[in-house]
Amino acid sequence: MSVAKSYASALFLAAQAEKLEAPTIAKMEADLKGFASELVKNRELRAALVGPATTTSEKHAIVKAFEDKLAWHPSLRNFLNLAMRKGRFDSLPEIAQAFAQVRVESSGGVLGLLESADPLSDSDVQQLSEAFTKKLGKRVEFQCQSQPGLLAGVRVTVAGTTYDGTLKAQLNRLRDKFLETSTSTH
């Protein structure tokens, strides 16, 4: 098991031990993902929390400021303080991803990635989730990402399999077919 999955599993088990309800766990997940995302985007924050120049008490003060502003659940606060003491803030994006996976798998589901050129509506995501749930025989929950380079359509990755219905993929297949027929005629 990876370090990220171990930490994510520990946080999820702590939430279960406290008998936290699904909305509270969902907020913890969103808060963890948001903090991890901020850590990736904000170079100064990353340097302060991951780098050696900041003392432990200064790091605690920074994390406390986020906690106060965002009203984190005490379990998430304790978890982040542990991750900070163990020097795992550089792994927070992977831990946040693994937490979502652990949460979905705990209820017998599977986490998938849904990529599209433009953000999809909630109803579109729900329809795709229902279609893949029916296809795979287990509940599929998607994490969505916008990838403008896809041009149009969607690319879905579930359980290690990618279903690519993007315009970019279709154009690449046409190009390959054209190249194949043009080289075979010579």
Structural account:
With 186 residues, the protein is of the alpha+beta class. It folds into two domains: 3-104, N-terminal domain of the delta subunit of the F1F0-ATP synthase (Peroxidase, domain 1, Orthogonal Bundle), CATH 1.10.520; 108-184, Glutaredoxin (3-Layer(aba) Sandwich), CATH 3.40.30. Helix content is 63%, strand content 12%. It is built from eight helices and four strands; from the N terminus they run ααααααβαβββα. A four-stranded mixed β-sheet has the order 2-1-3-4. Helix 7 links the parallel strand 1 (110-116) and strand 2. Helix 2 crosses helix 3, helix 2 (22-41) runs antiparallel to helix 6 (92-106) and helix 4 (56-70) runs antiparallel to helix 5 (74-85). The longest helix is centred in the first third of the chain and has 20 residues, at 22-41. The radius of gyration is 20 Å and the shape is globular. The N and C termini lie far apart (52 Å). 22% of the residues are buried.
What can be said about this structure in brief?
The protein is α+β, with helices and mostly antiparallel strands and about 190 residues long. The protein is about 65% helix and about 10% strand.
